[in-house]
Amino acid sequence: MIVDPTTDLNKYYKIISEPYDRAMREDFVEGSLSTGAYDANDYSYCWKLVKLANGRYVFQNAVTGKYIVPQNGMRSHTYTTATAEGNGFEFKRNTSDAYVLAFEMVDAQGVGIHCAESQGYRPVGWYEGSEANKWIFKVATVDEKKLEAQRESYNLRTDLTKNVDKYAAAIAKVFLSITKLRR
Questions:
Q1: Residue 11 burial by CB count (10 A; 0-12/13-18/19+): exposed, middle or buried?
Q2: What is the DSSP string of 135-171?
């Protein structure tokens, strides 16, 4: 069921491109947004809305805890995520079709999040009011134990990535010691 996510900020939501039926997710390997067929077992497709003091909203990923980063009105650039909330997005109803409860996430200077078919359906900045700027929200069913397991996996991967040089040096040291013992 399509809902207005501003009515309950405690739930996780699927954010789906209305014209393309593609769900937004955080591709945390790249640190950017992508879209695809919704996978109920992959919580990188799940988002919480957080209302800021300025009245704007930020969208927080369930797995990484990162937020979609506003681009200050840049067009055709893929949206990314970061740990900082930033200044958020204006969240407004798209009324181009009175029978669809669709929304736009407006960044700045009349530019919002757009599902760009021409760019592999990546969420990029484009002029508000465009058909591909229409997003619908559905409540996501989240199993807290599975979510915690996905967060733990993400944190382990992040730790490995941050410390790759340290781990590589330790492995090299072990192999050097083994080589010396065999001589």
A1: middle
A2: EEEEEPP--HHHHHHHHHHHHHHHHHHHTHHHHHHHH
Model pTM score: 0.88
**DSSP calls for 87-142:** T-BEEEEE-SSTTS-EEEEEEETTEEEEEEGGGTTEEEEEETT-GGG-EEEEEPP-
Q: Which two tokens stand for residue 14?
A: 């699927």
Q: How confident is the model at residue 164 (pLDDT cuts 50, 70, 90)?
A: low
- CA-wise closest residue to 28 among 71, 67, 81: 81
**Virtual CA dihedral for 70, 155, 122, 131, nearest 10 degrees?**
-60
Token code pair at residue 59: 């969208």
Helices vs. strands in the chain: H and E counts, helices first: 2, 13
Q: Count other Cβ atoms within 10 Å, centred on residue 121.
A: 17
Q: What is the DSSP letter of 45?
A: G
Q: Which tens digits make up the pLDDT trace of 59-117? A: 999 999 999 999 999 999 999 999 999 999 999 999 988 899 999 999 999 999 999 99
